[in-house]
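Deliverable D5.2: sample structural annotation.
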Amino acid sequence: MTQYLTLLLDCPVVIAAIFISGIGGTFQYGYGVSVMTSPSAFIKELMNQTCVHRYNVSLEQWQVSLIWSFTVSIFCIGGLLGSLFAGSLMSKFGRKQCLLLNNFVAIAGAVLMLLSQKTMSFEMVMVGRLLYGINSGVGLTVHSVYLTECAPKRLRGMVGVTIATFISTGKFFGQLLGISELLGTEKMWPWLLGFNGFTALFQLFTLPFLPESPSFLLLDRGDRQACEKALHRLWGDKDYSREVEEMLEERASLGSVRSHSVLELIQNRTVRWQLLTIVVVFTTVQLCGINAVYFYSFDVFRAAGIPEEKLRFAALGTGLCELCTSLACFVIIESTGKRVLLFRGYMGMSATLILLTVTLYLQGQVSWMPYCSMALIFIFIFFFASGPAGVTAPLPGEIFNQSYKSAAYIVACTLNWTGLFTLGMLFPVLVEQLDYYCFLIFLVFCAVCGIYVRLNVPETKNRTVLEITAEFERMHSKTAASDMKRSTEQKLNGIQIHETKL
């Protein structure tokens, strides 16, 4: 562990890239997910005031709830749109340039948020949320690709965890700035929602000092000199001929193949296990129950005797727990391995969900049971942040080669945003119908994903894309061989039957 930290400290530009790309990348996503909870009452009031001012009509409660749900959900629609365009934008403009241009989308959204209250227009909040979603959709993809391509192979896992760390940081800041002592007030909530613009400005002014992704310069543009120059800026003045040769081997294996589309990715049988891995892992990360646990945390904290006015600080504790665990994952991932962290994380989450369902069932019957539920909530967040949260985001960039990377991220982020939108729409219904038994549904997803990773996914630590691809083929060659053998036996049986009839 110490050697990895020493190696990282020897690359100060990589550390700068982690912070600068993260603050304008996945931080925006995490902040956008959590920030709407605090000012919800003020935004609903703005909706009603707008209709009274314009049309002299006071909205009914169900109408306000409908508009509010759409305002929250449109963030996911924007994220999906951003994800769909991110791949082509990366290929056309490059990783760094794409991140720079993406900041203007966030700044435009922030301006709308800041003006919404003065102009008495809740539509500005809607459009701002849509723009924030587009910014987050692009940023989630491009930040992941840029950072994993800028990191040395030995540090790729450690650096990749920071993608999720900035998501957790964004969530925590959304909770922290939203308390009434800071920006969660009737006068200051537009500044709370406009905070994304300031992080975008920070990245806009600092990112130009960083180099472009070395892999993009060599594999997409064929500029070896620019690639070597970027490597020296990122990793220091050493000999990187071996790393360049590995990239050239990947380029040689691709030949003159262009970036593949999503349809070509789906149709290609040679990468079907990699694609299936992305589908399973990215579907589960949204349907693992983390949002349900956060939702029930308030009820558990109330039952444990925490006063109503202190609940927001207890909620901050859950966000801080996720952030601290993500930082711990950053330290241990290179010594543990991503496959192990995914498997242990989902198995631990499965066991915790079973116990949490039991303690919630007994909460009204045993006086000390709410304290057990509260402990299990923090344990569940610990397992989530120490494995799935940190490992999932950079996974497509590690198991797919350059020609399939953009399409793989489009599939992954589409699943991510679709899952988030679907959960937002169905979760209230699940809670109303099943109550805390909804955890059993999430339990199935966690258990299935954990077993799948254990049986079908190779370790990616300290391996190139070509080595990981070869390991996928080795792991599943027995299955392919058995299928071929079964097919041959069926054909032979058919021939024997045919000969017998003759």
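Annotation notes: The two ends are 71 Å apart (CA to CA). Residues 27 and 170 are 5 Å apart (CA to CA).
The annotation will be released with the project's public dataset once the embargo ends.
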